[in-house]
Structure formats: C-alpha cells, structure tokens
Amino acid sequence: MTDLTSPHTPAPGAGDEAPARRRDGARILRLVLTRLGTAILVLLCTATVSFFLVRLSGDPVKLLLPPDATAHQEATLRTSLGLDRPLLTQYLDYLWGLPRLDLGTSLFYHEPVSQVLADRLPATLELAAGALVVTLGIALPAGVFAAMRRGRAADRGVMAGVLLGQSTPPFWVGILLILVFAVGLHALPASGYGTFANLVLPSVTLAVYSVAVVARLLRSSLIDVLSSDHIRTARAKGFGPLKTVFVHALRNASLPVVTVVGLEVGSLLGGAILTEQVFSWPGVGRLTIEAVSNRDFPLVQATVLFFAAVFVVVNLLVDLSYSLLDPRVRTSR
To answer: Contact 114/103 with Cβ under 8 angstroms?
Structure first.
C-alpha cells in the first residue's frame, strides 16, 4: 500500500506558489512596460508641441542683433543658427538628438543646452527639497491633529488653514512673506542664493499649497481608518488614543498620502517657476522665463521637456509603488 504521507509526496497546494509568483511577476512586468510606453508617448507629444509652439513667438534673430543690423547680417546669423532650414528638417534633427540627450545649443548663452540646465538644476532641486521638508514637517502633524480632534475647534482651525493654503496664489504668498519678514522685520533676505537664510522664504512659499493638500488628505484618510472595525477592537483592548493612531491607524492611512506626496514632489519642481522669479532664485524655473523672453528656442524646448519628464517619471514611480504596496491594485490590473 502506498504511503500517502510520504515526504516525497508534495502537500496539496504546495506547487501553486510558484505559478502564482510567476503570474504576479508577469503582471508587474506588463504594468511596467505599459507605463513606460505611455511615458515615452507623453514625452514625444510634449517635445512636438513645444517645438512648434515656441516658433510662433517670433524670430529670435531680431533679439540677438542690434536694431540697426542689415538684412545680410540677419541672414548670416539665421544660417549659422540653422534657422534657415525647413521646419520639418529642424524638427527631425531635434527628435534625433533627444535619445542622445543632444538638446542643441542655446541661442542666448552660446553653450550646450544640457550644460545650461545642469548649471541651474541644483538650485531647483535644493528649493524643492526644502519645500518638501516644510510640507512633511507641517502637513503630517496637522493632519493627524485635525483627525484626532474631528469636529472640534482645533479641527475647524486646521481646515480653515487648509482652505486658505489651497486658494492662495503662491506668488502672492511670496510677496507677502517678503513684505513681512524681509522688509518689515529684516529677519530674512528677500532674494539671493547660497545660504540657509536665502532658502527659508522660497521654501515656505512653494510648500504652502502642498501642505494644504497633504494635511487635508491625511485627515480624511485617518478619519476613515479610525472608524473601521480593527480600530474599535484596539480601543476595546484599552489602547490609548496616541497608540491607536500611531501604531494601528497611521500605517493604514498612509498609502494614499504616500501617493499624493510623490505627486507633490513633481508639483514642487514644476511649480518653482513663479517662486524662483519672485525670489530671484537661479533655478530652472527662472531659466524658463528668461528663455521665453529671449526666444531661445532650444532652451525653451529643453526646459519644457524637463518639467514634463519630471511629472512623467514621478507619476510612473508613484503608480508602480502603489501597485507594489497594495496587492489589491496589482491583482486588479
């Protein structure tokens, strides 16, 4: 008689784990390839639209030459810049250089566009990092505090601040902070770059909207989690309010917050244009405004593509991380 309990006989369901893992791996790979394809298509569309729209702003040769320049001088400069070639030829050359990160030469700075961007990028990253620290340092405690004081005066005060932060233009916040802390109190510099004091006002200005978004979402998510069955069970076991929130509720409420924080990183980088202009911050945002004013076609195209790439990459990473953190999302795709 055959021993059904022999160690050589596989247990029921033991061989199902490997196919399940392969299916999960196939789903994740398919998701990654789909998102990458979508990201490349979005960047291609952005590059195409920016290429043609920027040429509607006028002829940059008129700005690069003095007003009394002759027609021969204009034609010579236009030829040296390659602007005399057919528009389709210029477009195809531009697309051909993108995979090789050849973004052309700046018409105003007379340097490779990639080098000009690399010189300004650290300032923008520093500003975005400072704004992210301010966002997390204010929004997380405010969201938790409001959720724990739901319906009370403290909750209403936090929500009033959230409403004010979401409805106030960042450039107006920056001007107000300059008037109060730089002009009135002489506590912080109104502009400049290089020191921690220079970073404070721009970071706070850039973070105001993000603080409101993250605090409001965390409050709503925590309120939903605090009304669930496992939280009522934890309270029945005698856990205090702080332990219930920080040990049991906050982890379950953090998933949508992680998603929004990831998206806000892209918003902080992209939203730095006006903030950098208000505070004379030498970043990519201010460079974009200068490039538009100078009709620097290659530089405008590169800055627009940079901001688009930031949003696409951040959205891609957030989407993939959401699928990895929540198995229900992974299995539904």
So the answer is: yes
Tell me the per-residue pLDDT of 240-272, one tens digit each, with 9 for 90 and over: 666 666 666 667 777 778 778 877 877 787 767
Decide: helix, strand or coil at residue 305. Answer: helix
Cα separation, 125 vs 293, whole angstroms: 23
Instruction: Tell me the DSSP string of 7-71.
Output: TTSPPTTGGGHHHHHHHHHHHHHHHHHHHHHHHHHHHHHHHHHHHHHHTTS--THHHHS-TT--H
Q: How far is CA 80 from CA 51, 61, 74, 75, in A?
A: 19, 11, 10, 9
Stated pTM of the model: 0.78
Please answer whether residues 299 and 113 qualify as being in contact, where contact means their C-beta atoms are separated by less than 8 angstroms. yes
Output 224-233 pairs: Cβ under 8 A, ≥24 positions apart: 224/253, 225/249, 225/252, 225/253, 226/147, 228/252
